[in-house]
Design brief:
Elements: H1 27-37, E1 45-49, H2 55-62, E2 67-72, H3 76-87, E3 96-100, H4 103-112, E4 117-122, H5 129-142, E5 146-157, E6 165-166, E7 169-177, E8 180-187
Parallel strand pairs: 1-2, 1-4, 2-3, 4-5
Antiparallel strand pairs: 5-8, 6-7, 7-8
Helix pairs in contact: 4-5
């Protein structure tokens, strides 16, 4: 069962979908991720695509993110996210919202309404990482969804990485934790 590592919800054990259709981020990888981005999280707008249990977005808010948007297409993850938001008493809070939709549909809707994020995290099923990152990167770039200095972070398997550059996004760092890798993308148009 995933748990909130630190911050105001520290130690809360969260519900996770049963079975092998959803693969929650391990505490080890989550702790490493938040250690890397710890200075970027406070006050940030955080988007968690393929949210699963919602644990990454919940951890971000626990650590001071201004708001987290959780996206998953529904079914079991939607029920689990709802239970976890109830557990931390944030079900109707403006700090965390849940959008029940596919990731491309959610990105198009959010981007078309002018929303921008400091951190976009995505943890798609490992087998669909290259295609999912390509689709997300195109929408994020086209609709200008990353704030200045913002980043797209992708969790993936070491044997199925995303492309090194997608639309205006370029890979700037990868960190390996066993067979799991976290790759960071930044907007390369900011370098011009």
């Amino acid at each position: 069962m995933p748990r909130v590592i630190t911050g105001r919800f520290r130690g809360t054990v969260l519900f996770a979908p049963e079975g092998d259709k959803t693969r929650p981020t391990t505490d080890k990888v989550k702790e490493a991720l938040f250690s890397i981005i710890q200075n970027d999280v406070p006050g940030s707008e955080f988007l968690d695509l393929f949210a699963g249990s919602g644990q990454i977005g919940i951890e971000a808010v626990s650590r001071g993110a201004e708001r987290a948007t959780l996206v998953d297409k529904g079914g079991d993850p939607a029920r689990i996210i709802s239970r976890n938001l109830e557990k931390i008493r944030m079900k109707d809070s403006p700090e965390i919202r849940f959008i029940k939709a596919g990731f491309t549909q959610a990105l198009e809707k959010l981007g078309s309404s002018g929303e921008k994020f400091d951190i976009i995290f995505m943890d798609p099923p490992y087998k669909m990482v290259p295609e999912a990152v390509l689709a997300a990167g195109e929408i994020i770039s086209r609709l200008g969804m990353l704030k200045d200095g913002g980043m797209l972070i992708v969790e993936h398997a070491s044997d199925n990485p995303p492309a090194q550059s997608v639309a205006e996004l370029k890979s700037v760092r990868s960190c390996s934790y066993g067979t799991t890798v976290i790759t960071f993308f930044k907007n390369c148009s900011e370098e011009r």
